[in-house]
Design goal:
heterotrimer; A: alpha+beta; B: alpha+beta; 5 helices; elongated
Chain lengths: 290, 161, 761
């Protein structure tokens, strides 16, 4: 389990990374945290001719919070989300999600942006950014462009990034007061890839759901918003009946993947039961008892 | 770093000692520690980041040295199991592993010790749940973990067994 | 105070804690070559050709061999249990004409660097005409080779008149149980470093484990050497569990290469290889037919079972099948019994033993059976067990069958007493009441209990030599091996107890074939019992010599003398006449000559010894996800006599964690085409600290063994034995159907289906 030979270069800026990508061609790979890429290389499933190390780009691991967004530098590590980065509904929520990502030593190296670029169907961050309608800022040979999260994930392990683009920043919109968040996932063991992930955000005003976002990860080839489930909820006061209906609606939308740990129908059943739980969790944070 | 082709001459600062080594770009940090620096205390268990046998501290935090290339570790402070004891005297965490029978075959032990060392040196309160979560980062096939948890807890609590 | 029975800290720890261990990968020889095995990627097929030309041309590559190059080497022979046609199904060190599992070694590369060796292995092109693989051991057998069936042996055992028993039974029930394929893969992968020592004209093999003496003889035989021309040296071993240390193709390849090329050869297995090349285990299907009377007493039991042996018969022969056949009745009387164990080859990784081999599986089947009988007859499952126990007044109890080559005689045991003790300890009635209340409140919680009998202390012999030099330094030289279990500490404790010296001053040598002529090694929970007994006898002999000399010098009867703190004194009186041990040993040596006072003993045993215990699991099932959480886990274990309770509890806790793996997480799955689906640690799931609860233990010494002077029984396997059974029982209880769980592991995928079906009924 040793990687094939490759050329190693260090990028000093994002532009530098892009020009190196141009130089080494499509078999080159960007190295961020390496927590997914290097295992794939050790198994020789990935055989890059060159690695362009992004870790040497200065000031790239930041997280900064503006009035409207959390801006995440391309090299920010998962572990940075283990502690609150903002006030408001995401304050406790991001650490709750982050702590489900693998284990501490992996979170120390793995990056938020790297997770998005890898686009594993079971990635928590991929589901999160879709749930929040975040933006990916990519640097390419023609400069910078912004990609909406919903346009970003094309299929399993495939994004709309081109071969010579690199994620330099990710922007997560903040949620206003009045939003409440729930997170549920099921995995075989602590830290394993999830068999299903549900992220639910509810805007609750005077006991009534004004807006809802439900995002399902780990089930289809890409994370998806369950629009029909969301519309089941809007205008109602939170109750277990509509939560169950939302779960059923979401599971109907799923086009599930299969692997030795979970069949498609098991994944759909997980969605059916995890959606109501995530919704209950959000409602409980709103001080409502379901 | 001086490179010619895919080969690189690098300096690695390991336990306070600088090692000059020549490595291929593809040589992982753990292979370099073991084969080029003679530090075989860090073990290889899976080479895909799951088992944690190769856990070392890099700039103060635990990382999988099978998932990092040696060339990436230049200019960083690396700590391995060989650096824990002070002239043969156990560190607190080593002593606790001995006292609480937290090792059997000893193969996971260096990785566990480094993980635990990070945890106790943070000097932050650690709830039992978090302790379990952190120790769950690494695999052990012999102990069933409970004595490892006890040993680390004892050091966190400042117990002198 | 006796040091036997004290929770003393381990002698082994220091090197391991300092990072100064010497594991297989830690050896380095100058000028060494790195070996890399090319493995079949096809489960079953005719080997048409192997193109090694490109690999040979790669810079840094020294040699590449295929099966043709080493076709003269015989296949690897058995260490245990040769039976019927098994020899026809042994594994060659490189595949000859057929490949039979994904992972089957087909070629081997030697290079100057491990990275280059792997590059070269990538350039070896193997041409195979695929054949249909056999993946299910319960399907009709096929052909291993022309005229050789994939059922090379059937293990049969019986006593009593089963037909008559089933005829007269009030009820006859039939059940089928499945135990998944999993194994004891250790954290350290396999490895070997072989070096041709020209000066001594011998091969030296570093990184040996488990059975160095046996492997020395086997390699010598295969390579046409005499025994003196090869020595094996054990360093630290990163876990054994039955799997590590058996003789594998890679060990022989490495040895042969070192001999041929006269260069040191190093081979370190990677994890991907480890999960498809080192022995798998378990995977059995039991079909039971049981006749009971109205009270649930078993009158007769019939068992046909299938072992999915994998592609070849390796060193263990039919061991696992044999043990399952013999141990299935467990602690119960079962007046009549007949079993047929079908050894079936399948196109999967070959199987061997894994901690509690044949018992983890048969205990699962038996204890499920007891639960199901109780359910069918609406009886309390604990009560049904009590009714079936072999009563203590029948001990020692002979079953009249053979187990692992020895007559199956339970040496001692009070099964009911231990059950009473543990139920009392956990306040069983109250606990059940609490669980019932929680179930009424809507939680899926349940308790499962499973009883087991282990076996330990396999003979036939163990040799020990104790040496004391003129400075009274002690070395114990044994023919056993250490796989991480604490052998050195335990042997030193037993020796220290006999000699009245500090255990920390004693050096224990094991696994060095040049230090002692023969040795059995470490398996079958035999070390403490067999080697420990030999050490006790040798220590007594040495003590007799020293005290004898002192008696002459002090002019006192030997019976009045004792050794403590380095002095031989009269009845422990420090003020009275005494002689330092150093002087006694020197005086003895002056008489007999030499610089080392050496005593040797051989301990022999024709019977094994049988510890027993109970596992109790309390689990909570999440009905939505079908995830299982173990809330509490309790193990009661009677091991006759505990040398070091701290180590015994460590063995139990570690065994339990592995048992949880087999019960809930670990399974080698294959596609229909025979592709392994669990060849990474992301798919083959060891439990982590989050999944394993702290175990509560009750270790008792109510039934010391009569087979050895200290009353010892082995403690290595009781922690795992009944874990699958107890967890299955608890999960069944939790989901409200005691009969629902018939297959391990209880993966969430399977449990989800079961719960769904229960709800739709």
């Amino acid at each position: 389990m040793k990687p094939v030979p490759f050329k190693y270069t260090q990028a000093s800026t994002w532009k530098d990374a892009v020009s190196l990508l141009g130089e080494y061609g499509e078999d080159a790979k960007l190295l961020a945290g390496g927590q997914t890429l290097v295992p794939a290389m050790n198994f020789r499933l990935a055989r890059p001719n060159a690695l362009i190390d992004l870790n040497t780009i200065s000031n790239s691991a930041y997280t900064k919070t503006t009035d409207t967004h959390i801006c995440i530098g391309g090299l920010a590590r998962h572990i940075q989300f283990d502690v609150p980065l903002t006030d408001g509904p995401l304050r406790e929520f991001l650490p709750r999600v982050s702590r489900h990502i693998a284990h501490v030593p992996i979170r120390m190296r793995g990056t938020f942006a790297g997770s998005l670029a890898h686009a594993d169907p079971a990635s928590e961050w991929c589901a999160l950014i879709v749930s929040l309608d975040g933006t990916i800022v990519a640097e390419g040979s023609f400069g910078e462009r912004e990609i909406e999260a919903k346009e970003f994930f094309v299929s399993a392990l495939t994004t709309s990034l081109t071969n010579n683009e690199v994620i330099r920043e990710v922007r997560l919109p903040l949620l206003d007061e009045g939003w409440f968040c729930g997170f549920q996932e099921f995995s075989r063991r602590a830290g394993d890839f999830a068999l299903a992930i549900v992220i639910a955000h509810l805007k609750i005003n005077q006991g009534v759901i004004e807006a809802a976002r439900i995002c399902i990860g780990g089930v289809g080839v890409v994370p998806f918003r369950a629009a029909s489930a969301e519309s089941e909820l809007v205008g109602h006061s939170p109750n277990s009946g509509i939560f169950t209906r939302a779960g059923e609606a979401a599971s109907i939308l799923a086009d599930p993947i299969e692997d030795p740990h979970a069949t498609g129908s098991y994944r759909c059943d997980l969605v059916k039961t995890l959606v109501p739980r995530a919704l209950s969790e959000a409602s409980t944070l709103a001080g409502l008892k379901i | 770093m001086i490179m010619s082709g895919n080969r690189h001459n690098i300096k690695l600062n390991i336990n306070g000692t600088v090692h000059d080594v020549e490595v291929d770009a593809r040589r992982t940090l753990v292979d370099t520690l073991r084969d080029k620096c003679g530090l075989t205390g860090t073990h290889i268990g899976c080479e895909h980041g799951v088992c944690g046998a190769c856990t070392v501290l890099v700039d103060g935090v635990p990382v999988r040295s099978c998932l990092m290339f040696a060339v990436q570790a230049e200019d960083k402070k690396i700590r391995t199991v060989e650096g824990l004891a002070d002239e043969g005297r156990f560190s607190l965490i080593q002593q606790a592993f001995h006292d609480y029978h937290a090792l059997q075959c000893g193969f996971c032990t260096p990785g566990m010790l480094m993980l635990a060392t990070w945890l106790v040196e943070r000097e932050a309160a650690v709830a039992d749940e978090e302790l379990r979560e952190v120790i769950a980062s690494n695999l052990c096939r012999c102990t069933g973990y409970q004595n490892i948890l006890r040993a680390v807890r004892a050091v966190l609590d400042g117990e002198n067994p | 105070m006796s040091v036997i029975g004290q929770p003393l800290k381990r002698l082994e720890d220091r090197d391991l804690l300092l990072g100064e261990g010497q594991f297989a990968a830690d050896y380095t020889f100058s000028d060494q070559l790195y070996m890399r095995v090319v493995r079949s990627t096809i489960a079953h097929g005719i080997l048409r050709g192997i193109d090694v030309s490109e690999a040979k041309r790669l810079g840094g590559v020294v040699e590449v061999w295929t099966g043709k190059d080493i076709g003269h080497l015989p296949p690897i022979d058995f260490r245990l249990h040769k039976l019927q046609n098994l020899p026809l199904c042994r594994q060659h060190v490189l595949a000859q004409d057929k490949v039979r599992y994904v992972g089957d070694p087909v070629a081997v590369v030697f290079a100057e660097d491990p990275y280059v060796a792997e590059d070269a292995a990538d350039l070896v092109y193997v041409e195979v005409d695929p054949l249909e693989p056999i993946m299910d051991a319960t399907r009709p057998p096929g052909e291993f080779a022309p005229g050789v069936s994939t059922e090379p042996a059937v293990v049969e055992k019986s006593y009593g008149d089963v037909e008559a028993a089933l005829d007269e039974a009030a009820h006859v029930f039939e059940f089928e149980f499945h135990v998944g394929r999993h194994t004891g893969n250790a954290l350290e992968t396999r490895g070997a470093n072989v070096f041709y020592n020209a000066e001594l004209d011998r091969l030296e093999f570093f990184g040996a484990a488990k059975v160095p003496h046996f492997n020395r003889a086997a390699i010598a035989e295969m390579l046409g050497l005499n025994r003196e021309q090869i020595q094996l040296f054990e360093g630290h071993v990163g876990g054994g569990f039955g799997v590590r240390g058996e003789l594998y193709p890679e060990d022989v390849l490495c040895s042969y290469a070192a001999l041929q090329m006269k260069r040191p050869v190093k081979w370190i297995e990677d994890r991907f290889e480890n999960l498809m090349a080192a022995n798998h285990s378990r995977e059995q299907v039991f079909r039971l037919r049981v006749g009971v009377d109205k009270t649930g007493f078993i009158l007769g039991l019939e068992n046909e079972f299938f072992t999915s042996q994998g592609a070849y018969i390796r060193t263990h022969g039919a061991t696992v099948t044999d043990l399952a056949a013999a141990m299935l009745p467990g602690p119960y009387l079962v007046p009549s019994y007949r079993t047929q164990g079908r050894v079936r080859l399948t196109n999967k990784t070959p199987c061997g033993t894994y901690r509690s081999p044949g018992r983890y599986e048969s205990t699962f089947a038996r204890e499920r059976l007891l639960d199901l009988i109780a359910n069918r007859l609406d009886l309390d499952p604990i009560e049904v067990r009590r009714r079936n126990f072999i009563m203590s007044n029948l001990m020692p109890y002979s079953r009249g069958i053979v187990n692992h080559g020895t007559p199956l005689v339970y040496d001692s045991g009070d099964y009911a007493l231990l059950l009473d003790k543990i139920l009392d300890r956990i306040a069983y009635e109250d606990l059940q009441k609490t669980l019932e209340e929680r179930r009424v409140a809507g939680e899926m919680v349940g308790l499962g209990a499973a009883y087991f009998v282990e076996k330990s202390g396999l003979g036939p012999y163990d040799d020990v030599r104790i040496e004391m030099d003129r400075d009274a330094r002690i070395e114990i030289i044994t023919g056993v091996a250490s796989i991480g279990q604490g052998v050195e500490t335990v042997m030193a404790q037993i020796c220290a107890d006999g000699l009245g010296v500090d255990y920390e001053t004693i050096r224990v040598t094991h696994g060095q074939t040049d230090r002692i002529e023969r040795g059995m090694g470490a398996f079958a929970s035999r070390v403490t019992v067999m080697t420990g007994s030999a050490v006790a006898e040798a220590a007594a002999k040495l003590r007799e010599r020293l005290v004898g000399t002192a008696a002459e010098r002090l002019q006192l009867p030997a019976s009045e003398l004792s050794i403590s703190d380095g002095n031989i004194t009269a009845n422990g009186d420090r003020e009275g006449p005494s002689i330092p041990v150093v002087d006694a040993v020197s005086a003895t040596l002056d008489e007999v000559g030499g610089d080392v006072l050496s005593v040797e003993t051989t301990f022999e045993a024709t019977h094994m010894t049988y510890p027993y215990g109970v596992h109790i699991a309390i689990v909570k099932v999440d009905p939505a996800t079908a995830g299982v959480e173990i809330e509490r886990y309790i193990v009661a274990y009677d091991i006759g006599k505990s040398v070091n309770p701290m180590l015994v509890e460590g063995q139990i806790a570690g065994g339990m964690a592995q048992g949880i793996g087999g019960a809930l997480y670990e399974e080698f799955l294959y596609s229909d085409e025979g592709q392994p689906l669990s060849a990474t640690f992301a798919d083959y799931l060891w439990p982590t600290a989050k999944e394993v609860p702290d175990v509560e233990t009750l270790v008792t010494e109510d039934a010391p063994s009569g087979t050895n002077p200290l009353g010892l029984k082995g403690a290595g396997e009781g922690g795992i034995n009944a874990s699958g059974a107890a967890i299955a029982s608890a999960v069944g209880h939790a989901i409200g159907d005691p009969e629902a769980i018939t297959r391990l592991p209880i993966s969430p995928l399977r449990l989800h289906e079961i719960i769904k079906n229960l709800r739709s009924e």
